[in-house]
TrEMBL record:
Protein name: Redoxin domain-containing protein
Pfam short name (any one): AhpC-TSA
InterPro entries: AhpC/TSA, DUF4369, Thioredoxin-like_sf, Thioredoxin_CS, Thioredoxin_domain, Thioredoxin_ResA/DsbE_sf
GO annotation (BP), single: cytochrome complex assembly
UniProt KW keywords: Cytochrome c-type biogenesis, Disulfide bond, Redox-active center, Signal
Family matches, as Gene3D superfamilies: Glutaredoxin
Coiled coil segments of this chain: none
SUPFAM superfamilies noted in UniProt: Thioredoxin-like
Upper classification of the organism: Bacteria, Pseudomonadati, Bacteroidota, Chitinophagia, Chitinophagales
Signal peptide: 1-19
Molecular function GO terms recorded: antioxidant activity; oxidoreductase activity
C-alpha cells in the first residue's frame, strides 16, 4: 500500500471471489482532492475519485478477509478498513483524517478505527522523534543520551498500547495487524508467540495469521542457523545493474536492510539508519539495502533523497523480491545484522537499538 509499512471473522469466511462490498461516505473540507482506494495486494491504487461535495463511493471485491485503505491526497497515513457484507459508511473531517467522525461497518471496522485512534498520538511522537534525531550532531553525546531515553520510553508506550489493544480485541483482524506491524519488531520470539497464541483461531487462518506463523517459523530457523551456519547468501543487481553478492562483504559487519521507496515507516526510519552508518562506517561496518520497489526511478530517487550512501540492490519485483522471500520478510522495514563470519547476530534493530547493538559489537 502507498505510505504503509511498513498487511473479518466467522461469517466473513463465506465470501466468494465474486462478492462485492461497498464503502461510501463524506469527507468534509477536501473538495478537489483525490481519494485513492488500495488493497494489500500491491502498491498500485485500485480506484480513485476526485472529491466533489465531499462524497465518495468505492466497490471492492475481496476473495478473503483482507485489509484495504483509503489514502487522501496530501495526507501521510491511510484510513484502514475491512470490507464487510453490509455497506460501510464513513464520515470524515479532512483535519482529522484518517480518524473518522462516525462509522457504520460492523465490529471489524470499529476495531480497526479504535487501533488508528489509539496509535495516532504515537505516530505524532514518532514524527517528532525522527525530526529530533535528524538534528543531533555526531559529537553531541548528551543529546544522544537524552534521545535514547525518549526513544526507549516511546517503544515501551508502543508495546503497552499494542498489547492492551490485542487483549481487548482478540477476535478482530486489527489485532493481527497490530501484532505484525506495530509489535513484531519490538518483541522477542517468546513474547511474539505468546501474543499470537492468545488470538482467536479464526484470525490464524487468515493470510495475516499465516504470515505471522511464517514469521515465527523463520525466527526459530534463524536461531538454529545462527548457532550452526551462515546467513543465506544471495546476489542481486545494484542501481547500475552490477551484480552484488552478500558474501563479498565477508569480514565486515553488514546490516541487510529491507525497505522500499513507497514504505512510509521505512522512510521515517531512514534518518536513524543514516546516523548509525555515519557513526560506524569506519569501524568495519556497512549496510546493504534491499529494496522491495518495482519502479527503478522511484527507488533511485528515494536513495538520493534520503541520503542513503551505501550499496543498494533490487530485482524490482516488489513483494516477490527473491532476497525478501529467501529471508522470509513479510513486512518492512526489516533488517538483519550479520557478523564478519556471515552469521546473523541481530534482527529488526531500529533507532537507538541499532546504535546500541553496533556499539556493543564494534568495540
Amino acid at each position: 500500500m502507498k505510505q504503509l509499512a511498513l498487511c473479518a471473522i466467522g461469517a466473513l469466511f463465506s465470501w466468494t471471489v465474486s462478492a462485492q462490498q461497498m464503502i461510501s461516505g463524506t469527507l468534509k473540507g477536501a473538495d478537489g482532492k483525490t481519494l485513492f482506494l488500495y488493497s494489500d495486494e500491491d502498491n498500485n491504487p485500485k480506484d480513485s475519485t476526485v472529491l466533489k461535495d465531499g462524497k465518495f463511493s468505492f466497490t471492492v471485491t475481496p476473495a478473503t478477509p483482507s485489509i484495504h485503505a483509503l489514502i487522501l491526497q496530501g495526507k501521510d497515513y491511510p484510513y484502514l478498513f475491512v470490507p464487510a457484507k453490509e455497506p460501510i459508511k464513513v464520515v470524515f473531517n479532512v483535519s482529522d483524517f484518517p480518524v473518522a467522525e462516525s462509522i457504520k461497518g460492523g465490529e471489524e471496522n470499529a476495531a480497526m478505527q479504535a487501533y488508528q485512534q489509539a496509535f495516532r498520538p504515537l505516530i505524532q511522537r514518532a514524527q517528532a522523534l525522527n525530526a529530533e534525531a535528524a538534528g543531533i550532531a555526531e559529537d553531541d553525546e548528551a543529546a544522544k543520551t537524552a534521545f535514547r531515553t525518549k526513544a526507549g520510553a516511546f517503544n515501551q508506550d508502543v508495546l503497552t498500547t499494542g498489547k492492551q489493544f490485542v487483549k481487548v480485541h482478540p477476535k478482530q483482524l486489527a489485532s493481527m495487524w497490530v501484532l505484525l506491524n506495530e509489535l513484531r519488531t519490538r518483541l522477542d520470539q517468546e513474547e511474539f508467540a505468546q501474543i499470537y497464541n492468545s488470538l482467536d483461531k479464526s484470525l490464524k487462518e487468515t493470510k495475516y495469521g499465516k504470515s505471522a506463523a511464517k514469521y515465527l517459523a523463520s525466527t526459530q530457523g534463524e536461531e538454529a542457523g545462527a548457532s550452526a551456519g551462515l546467513a543465506p547468501d544471495f546476489t542481486q543487481e545494484d542501481v547500475n545493474g552490477v551484480a552484488v553478492k552478500l558474501s563479498s562483504f565477508r569480514g565486515k559487519y553488514v546490516l541487510v536492510d529491507f525497505w522500499a521507496s513507497w514504505c512510509g515507516p521505512c522512510r521515517a526510519e531512514n534518518p536513524n539508519v543514516v546516523k548509525a552508518f555515519e557513526r560506524f562506517k569506519d569501524k568495519n561496518f556497512t549496510i546493504l539495502g534491499v529494496s522491495l520497489d518495482n519502479n527503478k526511478e522511484r527507488w533511485i530517487g528515494a536513495v538520493k533523497q534520503d541520503g542513503l550512501s551505501w550499496t543498494h540492490v533490487s530485482d524490482l519485483k516488489g513483494w516477490s523480491n527473491q532476497v525478501a522471500q529467501l529471508y522470509r520478510v513479510n513486512s518492512i522495514p526489516a533488517n538483519f545484522l550479520i557478523d564478519p563470519q556471515g552469521r546473523i547476530i541481530g534482527r529488526n534493530l531500529r533507532g537507538a537499538a541499532l546504535e546500541a547493538k553496533l556499539k556493543e559489537v564494534l568495540k
